[in-house]
Amino acid sequence: MADDTKPETPAPKIVPQTGEATVAAAASPRAPAAGATASAPATGANPAATPHATTTPAARPPAAPRPPAAPIPDLAGKTTNAASAGGAAARVAPAPAVKAATRDADDTSPLLNRRAWMGLAWGAFSAASAAALAATGRFMFPNVLNEPPQQFKAGFPNEYGMGVDERWKEKFGVWLVRTPEDIEQHASGFYSLSVTCTHLGCTPNYLSAENKFKCPCHGSGFRTTGVNFEGPAPRPLERTRIVLAEDGQILVDKSRHFQRELGQWTDPEAFLKA
Ligand code: FES
């Protein structure tokens, strides 16, 4: 026989509520507002979305706690989880860095921006400065011109016969000529002739068979005295200073020249009497 005196378990009381209460309950399901726990869902609302607001604890078992998220090491070596900033960065692939715009607001250059032009100008300035510095450094070390000495001793007079001697032509650029009668000094002795053609500077050759100097460049001819007589050479060959050194040797000094057209062949040092 059934016990009619046992009190019945009261059914959950459903109380109509406004939409605002339902939204508040859905936003904070674990901490419902005081008035929302006894409220029923509004018409058309999903009861599952507001469990605490629509059912009693006895009607639905509490949800099982979620397992903690697995730790994710970030790039700095720290251990973090997916919810932290480091974890999110580890889960999301880094987007390619977008180059920040370097053009200033007032920069209207059509090809390059202002910074590029400045870099170009500085590069050109640096290159020009380096070139100027290199040229200055090169100027400090001029080319060395190895010229033969201007003076040399040509030996003793008795070592020479009459006529043209070519032993000093290559090394010192002169012919030493011994003559019994000079056309200007009117005496026997020596004179030194420069081997430079008075036309354009070539070096004539001594032709012993013709007893003359002949320039290979344009055909000028010179007597053994140095006087020009054919070709385009405008004047005689030049003589150089020639004296007797203290030791009795012939001293030739190329630093001083004598020109016949200037009357200089009569100078005492233009001829060595012997
Ligand atoms: S350079 Fe000697 S003739 Fe012209």
Give structural notes:
The structure is a single chain. The protein has 274 residues and is α+β, with helices and mostly antiparallel strands. The chain is built from 5 helices and 13 strands. Strands 3, 4, 5, 6, 11, 12 and 13 form a 7-stranded antiparallel beta sheet that branches. It has a 4-stranded antiparallel beta sheet with strand order 7-8-9-10, with no helix packed on it. A hairpin with a 5-residue loop joins strand 1 and strand 2 (79-80). Mean pLDDT is 77; it is low at 1-8 and 15-58. The protein binds FE2/S2 (inorganic) cluster. Residues 197, 199-202, 215, 217-220, 231-233 line the site of FE2/S2 (inorganic) cluster.
Largest sheet: 7 strands, antiparallel
Form type: rod-shaped
Mean pLDDT score, rounded?
77
Number of strands: 13
Residues in helices, as a percent range: 10-25%
Please name the defining characteristics of this protein:
single chain, 274 residues, alpha+beta, 7-stranded antiparallel β-sheet, 4-stranded antiparallel β-sheet, 5 helices, rod-shaped, disordered N terminus, binds FE2/S2 (inorganic) cluster
